[in-house]
Design a protein that fits this description.
The protein has a domain of about 70 residues. The chain has about 375 residues and is of the alpha/beta class. Strands 3-2-1-4-5-6-11 form a seven-stranded parallel beta sheet, with helices on both faces. It has a two-stranded parallel ribbon with strand order 7-10. About 40% of the residues are buried. The protein is built from 14 helices and 13 strands. It is about 40% helix and about 15% strand. The termini are far apart.
Length: about 375
């Protein structure tokens, strides 16, 4: 089987590549070549910008694929461009959507693929819904076979799952190790479903050229659930360090860290529990047996053994310190240690750049001003 991944080096796609190779599939990836050093030598790499239709079409020449998986379309414009390339160039086009597309569910309600697609709280989710609609319209016009896959929160050796966390995931770990408070929203009561990417990969690869999956949609998650408070406690257990929790309302967090508004109100502030009957009926041997308390230990061990991944976002760290300090002052809570809310590093020596970045994050107006300038520069 000939499989092409658009992306191929991300959190999800890395384990999918591994699973496909384990089944002796011929694997190709398309990306811009920025992170190809760790790719298995068996993978055939096509370097190019997927947004450049003419360039990619020339590089693909007469190649035809059994399966194409699109990880990089986040809105209709991007998906339309990608379909222009791959319509009639593959048997099955798999679109990676998101399980955040479902409406808010009631307590105890399981999400199935028939649950209404509606999430007005998050633009990301609404864009994915529009993409799914476009796929169906494209099929009616071109007869290009498709499958929609909706992952929920996944984690791997390289990803620590949490809502309020920067892309430099070790920043959260650094706070736990230094006994700095961890920002938890609304008591961490929302129920989540955290799936190891190795488990997810087995599910999606089972859909490859599976005729039962054509023109169908699937979410692929574990059946194990826990609350977000339990999740941060499990991360602490993996570190052998109990996290100190700063329990703050999501409305307050969204006011001072607005980039998390959609994440909290349209995703991780909601109960997300899934019925996986559909994927199990189509991929009969699919199981997702890895419990988070076990999987996260492997993640932490990987970070500990790969020091280059232990990067810290000091600007983000400072913004969390600022928010916590401000909230505690607003409720006249005095029984917290303000000395914890300062720049620290668990083992690494602090540089002048670290200190400057922290200073920027600790001063809200300076942070917003510099962010405004940076965005203006990008627009040019």
């Amino acid at each position: 089987m000939k499989v092409l991944l658009i992306g191929g080096t991300g959190i999800l796609s890395t384990d999918i590549v591994t699973e496909a190779l384990n089944r002796n599939y011929e694997v190709y990836i398309i990306n811009r070549g920025n992170r190809n050093t760790d790719i298995n030598h068996k993978v055939k790499i096509i370097i190019g910008d997927i947004r450049n239709v003419e360039q990619i079409q020339k590089k693909l020449e007469n190649l035809y694929f059994d399966v194409v998986i699109d990880f990089l379309s986040f809105n209709e414009k991007q998906l339309r461009s990608t379909l222009e390339i791959f319509n009639h160039r593959c048997t099955q086009f798999i679109f990676i959507s998101s399980a955040t597309v479902y409406r808010k569910t009631e307590k105890g309600e399981l999400i199935t693929e028939k649950t209404e697609l509606k999430n007005d709280e998050w633009d990301y989710a609404m864009d994915k819904i529009r993409c799914e609609k476009l796929l169906k319209e494209n099929y009616e016009k071109t007869n290009q076979c498709y499958t929609i896959v909706r992952p929920y929160v996944t984690y791997s050796n390289r990803r620590i799952p949490f809502a309020i966390i920067p892309s430099e995931h070790w920043t959260l770990v650094n706070r736990i190790l230094l006994e700095k408070p961890i920002l938890l929203w609304d008591g961490g009561k929302a129920i989540c479903t955290l799936t190891q990417t190795k488990d997810f990969a087995k599910g999606i690869v089972g859909l490859f050229k599976n005729t039962k999956a054509y023109q169908e949609d699937f979410h692929i998650t574990t059946d194990y659930t826990l609350t977000w408070r339990e999740a941060i406690e499990d991360i602490g257990k993996a570190l052998q360090k109990e996290p100190i929790i700063a329990d703050i309302p999501s409305t307050y967090i969204a006011k001072y860290m607005p980039e998390y508004k959609g994440v909290l109100f349209g995703d991780k502030g909601l109960n997300r529990v899934f019925d996986n009957s559909k994927i199990k009926s189509v991929v009969e041997d699919f199981k997702a047996p890895i419990k988070f308390e076990d999987g996260i230990k492997e993640t932490i061990e990987y970070y500990e053994n790969n020091k280059e991944m232990q990067t810290i976002n000091y600007t983000w760290d400072a913004r969390v310190d600022y928010l916590i300090n401000r909230y505690y002052k607003s409720i006249n809570k005095k029984d917290y240690d303000r000395n914890k809310l300062t720049i620290k590093s668990y083992k690494n020596r602090l540089t002048m750049r670290n200190k400057i970045n922290y200073f920027i994050g600790k001063h809200e107006y300076l942070y917003r001003f510099l962010k405004f300038i940076k965005n203006k520069i990008k627009e040019r």
